[in-house]
């Protein structure tokens, strides 16, 4: 099964609050786990890190991992004006050139900060992706029962937290068939409104949700987010220096391993450097990747390997 690990590599540019953080140490931890288990990953990096800590980009690429782009300064493209978009494209051109200098390889993929929510597929943003010759993007989010029933999320006052409480009370998290019902409940907006795949219908959306896979979006391959983001399990602001409750760490590992077991042809893991690379949360990465590697089912693939670039 094609299995990809994504890191939104954003450092303090993507953190929800200013806190002390050592990106180099987190990078060492991440690369150590990946190397120990023979796994390759995609690092979606902000342009600011490329400019400010280029030695880390070189180190990651030299270890055999893919460098993709995660915006310039972590601004959500969905909030950009036409003037902002012009500056954004100019910034991307500069970042791409610098990545080529550092790694010898041109980046061909993009994950939007905040996944470009709430629009996900902003037409102006995808125009830029196409002009830049990108081969893939990864912005289609799926909400999972496992994040809603995380100990830090369940019962929270927002839609996901309240849904988690309902899912748990009805037992929709205990049996695979019932978890499917919970999956639909959490993704009603996707089923009802999404028109990004062909055929564009609610029935087709429901069928896709039951077995999600990459698809073509205009000229790019769209790689959906096939497991919860680490931050969605954790709910609140994460202090890189402080550990998370062990019950949450165990829930994350168990959930990700089960989702891998239930996947058929495609699976991916989705993390942030400042979350999963710090404190006891590195255990989530280590235990999960070890489980996947030992399964004998996984073929570690980089996003660019499934998406041929349109020009060098």
3D structure, described in words:
The chain is of the alpha/beta class. The protein has 14 helices and nine strands. It has helices spanning 23-37, 47-52, 54-62, 82-103, 123-131, 145-148, 159-170, 176-186, 188-193, 202-210, 230-234, 246-262, 273-276, 282-295; strands at residues 2-9, 41-45, 66-69, 109-110, 136-137, 215-217, 220-222, 266-272, 299-300. Strands 1, 2, 3, 8 and 9 form a five-stranded parallel β-sheet that branches. The chain has a four-stranded mixed β-sheet with strand order 4-5-7-6, with no helix packed on it. Helix 5 links the parallel strand 4 (109-110) and strand 5 (136-137). Helix 12 packs parallel to helix 14. The protein starts with a strand and ends in a 12-residue tail after the last strand.
Give me the number of helical elements: 14
Radius of gyration: 19 Å
Query: Helix coverage percent of residues?
Result: 40-55%
- Please count the beta strands (DSSP E, at least 2 residues each): 9
Runs in which pLDDT lies below 50 for 5 or more consecutive residues are 308-312
Strand percentage, roughly? Answer: 5-15%
Order of helices and strands: EHEHHEHEHEHHHHHEEHHEHHE
Main structural class: alpha/beta
**What global shape is seen?**
globular
N-to-C terminal Cα separation, in Å? 28 Å
